[in-house]
Design goal:
This protein is an alpha+beta fold. The chain starts with 14 loop residues before the first helix and ends with a strand. The chain is 49% helix and 14% strand. Helix 3 packs antiparallel against helix 4, helix 3 crosses helix 9 and helix 9 packs parallel to helix 11. The protein has 28 helices and 19 strands. It has a 5-stranded mixed beta sheet. The structure holds manganese (II) ion. The site of manganese (II) ion has 4 residues, from loops.
Length: 753
């Protein structure tokens, strides 16, 4: 057949180059021609002419005319992704807006909205030259985030970007070394997984191989050379394996071809690395593929008939049977895989699939669409759209929307976990199939069912057995979620989920809870301040933060709101503040704006768990002293805090965060003293303070830090004494003596109130 293509008129520096450009264009034109509908011939021709003129003066790093690049990108789009004329036109024009004065508007006027939108989408994805390669993970993640956020949800934009990347990788040799490394790394991190996820197996493989070639040239060449050296032997083996199969297939009337295919260099390298073995220890350097030509109705049955035939000849390994025909992978992959014992006792992987499945496996979704059109007319095939390309693009949209409030690292991590990884298939108790990304846990599943189910998830029953929230789902698990009204999400739940849906729901819940707690804390604080005649202000809040030794002013409100901090602490703060200000006033006459420095807490020896080296602080809500019954609590931001077992916050901590509690015991006797606060109440009389102080300092040889006896109210006094004791026995002796002072009614540790 002769093809007559009326060539567009273009100019170029040399006749030789002009001819080469036209030759390449003609090849492209021929490949896309079968897809032409009315007007497409002119569309492609005009796009080529425009691109050619636009890039007229430009050359690639290789020295070649720039127009080679858009032509090659379009060629890849047709040959390896099965895209049609619109995408070809867009591919030809993809660098025009980026590199010349032409605007998206110009493109739209000449080529229509569709082409313009695709070109615009491709242009918006930050090109390698815009992104500086960063050594540090978080700025590199920021680059990736920009790239991922720009990914349009028009699949053709992503396809053309991948074709663009593939051609840039093929011509990477012309780039300076640092650029090579940067582009190659991006490729392996983002583009190869993207290609894989979209079912573009051929492109994915080539990208991976090129990555290896440019990052570890020696390794790459070494494996390539060994593959060549062993090729004849391998082919002989493959032939020996195939011949009886092919004969049997022919005899039974199947239209099928059996081929042997080498694995990619990258996948061999990966295997060597993972299993830590040398090249000659890798036995599955190839796989056998049976490709069958059959009616669509008979696909599944015929593939299984062939499976039966293969296993008549070679003994199968029952653990290695994979049926992706009944449940295709979410990237569209369908195939039946088995591993059988071949000649010389070697395991050989056999892939059984139809012509249609093979094309989809190699060329992905676009090829899939081509068949889907036909498929719609055949009956009985239920397409689970959530798992197809539409579902993927939907998930991409969701990821973009959730981007706010996430760091770049979190975003890129989530993206990779959600959109690249393959998934596990699990069932609800009713037998509905759910697909989740690999690594998903029971908790992810709960959120997949419903936000409320997730928020109240206690655990799950997997195949009738109870498992914790963080159970990793496996293919085929039947999952029943156990819930409780008392349950609620905690920050560490974020560590046990992988889906974006679960993460954003947990974050939402925590954010809302935090807001509520802050509000509640503010209410408690306001009420308390009113009682003790203080006015709320930011500087007051900051003084409180300082006094309580917390990181942020909001922590004061949070701790009040969730009850970790007793409001009585505010009274103590007021007292302490007054004292410090008095002192300050005496010292520096009227300079009251300085924030008083709280007394330094002393580290005292406690053994935590089995370890006496761990850092800790004594909780300010209950101020433990030696001899108190204590426990350690691992806080989120403030390390380990030691609380008394009788601390008012203890029940809440133990009940809700039992897993954060650790054993703590006092180390054997040390020479040390602990600050305690005593509340003292009684009937006022002259000389009472003198009596109290005398007992404390003379009789008991105790250091008083401060003594503050409040206003007498109708003959009643109330006061607060801060002093140092060596342990609980010392304290109880002191309390006994104080209670015996005439007029004193009660002496209590303030922290117990
Ligand atoms: Mn390009």
């Amino acid at each position: 057949m002769t093809i007559s293509v009326k060539m567009p008129e273009i100019e170029y520096d040399t006749e030789e180059e002009r001819k080469e450009i036209l030759k390449r264009y003609r090849k492209l034109y021929r490949s896309v021609k079968p897809y032409f509908k009315e007007g497409d011939a002119n569309l492609v021709k005009d796009a080529f002419k425009t691109a050619s003129d636009a890039h007229r003066e430009m050359r690639r790093k290789t020295g070649e005319p720039y127009i080679y690049h858009p032509i090659e990108v379009a060629q890849i789009a047709v040959d390896e992704i099965s895209l049609g004329p619109t995408a070809v036109a867009a591919a030809l024009l993809h660098d025009v807006v980026e590199d010349t004065d032409a605007t998206v508007k110009d493109i739209e006027q000449q080529f229509g909205k569709k082409v313009a939108q695709i070109v615009d989408g491709v242009t918006k994805i930050p090109f390698e030259k815009e992104l500086e390669w960063a050594n540090n993970a978080s700025s590199q993640a920021e680059n990736f985030r920009k790239m991922l956020l720009a990914l349009s949800d028009d699949a053709r934009v992503i396809f053309i970007k991948l074709a663009d990347r593939l051609h840039n990788m093929r011509t990477l040799g012309a780039m300076p070394r640092p650029k090579q490394l940067k582009i190659a790394s991006e490729t392996i991190y983002i583009y190869a997984p993207l290609a894989h996820r979209l079912g573009l197996y051929k492109i994915k493989s080539e990208l991976e191989d090129l990555y290896l070639k440019y990052t570890q040239e020696e390794t790459y060449r070494d494996i390539a050379q060994k593959l060549r050296q062993t090729k004849a032997k391998r082919n002989k083996y493959i032939q020996e394996f195939i011949t009886p199969l092919q004969e049997a297939l022919d005899k039974q009337g199947f239209k099928a071809r059996v081929i042997g295919r080498s694995k990619s260099i990258y996948s061999i390298w990966n295997k060597m690395r993972r299993q830590n073995v040398t090249f000659d220890k890798i036995y599955d350097l190839f796989a056998i593929r049976v490709i069958l030509d059959t009616e669509e109705d008979a696909e599944k049955t015929d593939c299984w008939r062939i499976y039966s035939l293969v296993t008549d000849h070679y003994r199968p390994n029952p653990d290695r049977l994979r049926d992706w025909i009944s449940i295709p992978k979410s990237n569209g992959y369908e195939s039946l895989h088995t591993t059988v014992m071949g000649p010389e006792g070697r395991w050989v992987e056999v892939q059984i699939r139809t012509q249609r499945m093979d094309e989809i496996a190699e060329k992905g979704y676009a090829a899939h669409w081509k068949y889907k059109e036909r498929r719609k007319q055949t009956k009985g095939i239920v397409e689970d759209e959530k798992r197809g390309l539409d579902g993927w693009l939907q998930a991409l949209r969701e990821m973009r929307e959730q981007n706010e409030g996430q760091t770049a690292l979190e975003f890129v991590d989530d993206f990779r976990a959600n959109l690249f990884n393959e998934e596990v298939f699990v069932f609800t108790p009713k037998g509905d199939l759910k697909t989740l990304p690999k690594g998903a846990t029971a908790l992810d599943f709960a959120y997949e069912i419903h936000t409320e189910v997730g928020n109240s998830c206690l655990g799950a029953k997997i195949n009738q057995k109870i498992v914790p929230l963080n159970y990793n789902l496996k293919n085929g698990d039947q999952v029943e979620i156990l819930t409780s009204k008392k349950q609620k999400p905690a920050t560490d739940w974020l560590q046990i989920v992988v889906t974006g849906k679960a993460k954003s729901n947990i974050r939402d819940f925590i954010r809302k809870e935090r807001r509520d707690t802050l509000k509640e804390g503010r209410e408690i604080l306001d009420k308390k301040l009113k009682q003790i005649n203080l006015e709320f202000s930011d500087s007051l809040l900051n003084q409180l933060r300082n006094y309580l030794d917390l990181k942020h002013p909001s922590d004061v409100l949070l701790q009040l709101g969730n009850g970790y901090l007793s409001p009585s602490k505010i009274t103590k703060f007021r007292n302490w503040k007054q004292r410090s200000e008095d002192k300050e006033a005496r010292k520096t006459e009227g300079n009251s704006s300085t924030i008083p420095i709280p007394p330094k807490k002393e580290q005292e020896p406690i053994v935590i768990g089995e370890n006496s080296q761990l850092d800790y602080t004594l909780a300010t809500c209950c101020n433990p002293i030696r001899g108190d019954d204590i426990f350690g609590y691992i806080t989120i931001n403030n390390g380990i805090k030691i609380h008394r077992a009788t601390c008012p916050n203890a029940p809440a901590l133990l009940a809700n965060y039992g897993y954060r509690v650790i054993r703590a015991v006092w180390k054997s006797e040390q020479n040390e003293s602990f600050l305690v606060e005593l509340g003292i109440k009684g009937n006022d009389r002259i000389g009472l303070i003198q009596d109290v102080t005398r007992i404390i300092s003379n009789n008991m040889k105790v250091n008083i830090e401060s003594i503050n006896l409040g206003k007498a109210d109708e003959g009643i006094f109330e006061g607060c004494i801060r002093l140092y004791v060596s342990d609980v026995n010392h304290l109880s002796l002191l309390r006994n003596k104080l209670t015996k002072v005439e007029g004193v009614v009660s002496v209590d540790r303030l922290d117990e109130v």
